[in-house]
């Protein structure tokens, strides 16, 4: 649908406010701030900036629901990707070796938050570029659902296959990142090719969620153990 409705007018300002809140906390963390004043200043600047920027963008463009979702999910997905790839690639981590072996240090908080900030802003910019053209709400919802469920499936299947058995603790995360990006593209393609509506995507998401919860209930009743406790909800 190309209609500009109440949901599309509300979603972008809500996202802008929450994203401004996130930036207000993330930026001081990325600079290794240790005093509360830095975080207070971040909130005072970030929240109004996010809200009013979103309101100005919505007034100037009159984004439809599909275009709005491209921007908001772009920011969310970019933030997740920034976190994930920083962890997988070990950016900012140092290898510490001793008589008992070598391991990666976890002291890369600044790098993780910096990557999440950059990834989120890049995702918002990408979504804004996409939103210059018409975007059907079903297509954007299918991309969102496809990326979300594919990330979950990738992580859980990797866990079943013991991706981390070799000692590489990032195997499950890598599988989730790769499958999520594949699901994003697949959802966008299938949503566009089959003209899927937003309502139908919601029904599919609801069906998947309901099936997963039923599987979880079976897990609690039967306590199957091993990898079956993951496979049954999937």
Helix and strand content put the structural class at mainly alpha
What's the total helix number? Answer: 8
| DSSP strand tally | 2
What is the distance, rounded to the nearest whole angstrom, between the alpha carbons of the first and last residues?
Answer: 32 Å
Largest sheet: 2 strands, antiparallel
- Average pLDDT works out at 90
Q: Give the spatial strand order of the biggest sheet.
A: 1-2
* Helix/strand order, N-terminal first: HHHEEHHHHH
Radius of gyration: 20 Å
**Overall shape:** globular
**Can you tell me the residue ranges where pLDDT is under 50 for at least 5 consecutive residues?**
none
The proportion of residues in beta strands is: under 5%
> Helix fraction?
over 70%
Please describe what this structure looks like.
- The protein starts with 5 loop residues before the first helix and ends with a helix.
- The protein has helices at 6-30, 36-61, 65-89, 109-130, 137-160, 171-193, 198-222, 228-231, and strands at residues 95-98, 101-104.
- Helix 1 packs antiparallel against helix 2 (36-61), helix 1 (6-30) runs antiparallel to helix 4 and helix 3 (65-89) packs antiparallel against helix 4.
- The protein has 234 residues and is mainly alpha-helical.
- It has a two-stranded antiparallel sheet.
